[in-house]
Specification:
This protein is an all-alpha fold and 331 residues long. Helix content is 66%, strand content 0%. Helix 4 runs antiparallel to helix 8 (177-197). The protein is globular. The model is unreliable at 1-31 (pLDDT under 50).
């Protein structure tokens, strides 16, 4: 065994060089640089706060109306009032979760090609202010939900907040569990509409919501993996997944979703006379999943709400599906 200056020189020559600013394992630096602050109103604190609560993603909260619609009672005055209140309160608590999530993920977001421009990651919105606003949103929504709606809605909102905070702080780094928790957020939205209006939820309805949510979440993860490529290693939530595994999850969940939706449609159809609109709705439902799968497969569905709003064909198919479901439950 050699020792002394010659041995140390040999060790230095065999070391793998580490890029400047990177960690010892070659990963990107833990702290990314702040992007240039946008000029004008876009770089202001007020607009930054609006962007930080992600109003575009509030489209997901429309799921609150799913249970009253499926029950054919959405246009009853009391049911509509309760459902709209649940919708507003879910917008509040989900906005608070987005704020907490962006505060926790600020360093990772600064290494992401797109998320680095989020107001908190970009330094436009101070982290303490974001946390204070999140607490205000949580408190206000839970108090209003308990006072002006059925107590069950307050419980659903509280469960949503607790689960999602657990996700933000730790559970997002647990493989499979993170998929289930994000999917549970969609499921709790559908449950909230039912409990707010006092509507009993069908077992098939709940299964469609659960596995449909898992389909969306696994597809989103897959798209992120495809888009980021090797840079996906900088996102802890993606390190444990392979593209083939995520494809398996969203394929399996799509199959289950179609099966249980068909069972629900057949169950509703047995009580209908004339044209079986509920059964007919299976066709646009399946077409919608297949169309969305195209976006998933090419990695273009990182944000489901953007796909729904920007894909005109998918939007048309969704409109036809809603129309056939509406005709089935209201006629």
């Amino acid at each position: 065994m050699t020792s002394g200056p010659e041995a140390r020189r040999a060790e230095r020559e065999t070391e793998v060089p580490v890029p400047r600013g990177a960690t010892a394992d070659g990963a990107p630096p833990l702290t990314g640089e702040l992007p240039p602050r946008p000029s004008g109103a876009r770089g202001s604190l007020a607009l930054g706060l609006v962007r930080a609560v992600r109003p575009r993603q509030w489209v997901k909260n429309v799921l609150v109306l799913a249970a009253p619609l499926a029950a054919g009672r959405l246009f009853e005055q009391d049911v509509a009032r309760a459902a709209l209140l649940a919708l507003v309160l879910f917008c509040a608590v989900s906005a608070g979760i987005y704020l907490v999530n962006d505060v926790v993920d600020v360093e990772e977001d600064r290494r992401h090609p797109k998320k680095r421009f989020r107001p908190i990651a970009a330094g436009i919105v101070p982290r303490p202010l974001a946390l204070v606003l999140a607490v205000v949103l949580f408190t206000g929504a839970l108090v209003l939900g308990s006072l002006f709606a059925r107590p069950a809605l307050g419980w659903v909102l509280g469960i949503y907040v607790v689960i999602q905070l657990g996700y933000c702080l730790w559970l997002k780094h647990q493989p499979v569990i993170d998929l289930a928790i994000v999917a549970s957020g969609f499921l709790l939205r559908t449950v909230a509409g039912g409990v707010a209006a006092g509507i009993a939820l069908s077992q098939w309805f709940l299964l469609v919501a659960a596995f449909g949510s898992l389909f969306m979440v696994a597809g989103k993860r897959y798209s992120e993996l495809v888009v980021l490529g090797e840079a996906a290693a900088t996102r802890k939530s993606l390190r444990e997944y392979s593209a083939s595994y995520l494809r398996f999850v969203w394929s399996m969940s799509a199959g289950v979703t179609v099966t249980v939706y068909s069972l629900w449609a057949f169950e509703i159809g047995r009580t209908q006379e004339g044209i079986p609109w509920s059964t007919i709705s299976i066709a646009p439902f399946v077409l919608g999943l297949l169309r969305h799968a195209v976006d998933l497969d090419r990695g273009a569905a990182g944000a489901p709400e953007e796909v729904v709003l920007n894909d005109k064909v998918l939007l048309f198919i969704g409109t036809v599906w809603v129309a056939t479901v509406g005709l089935g439950v209201f006629l």
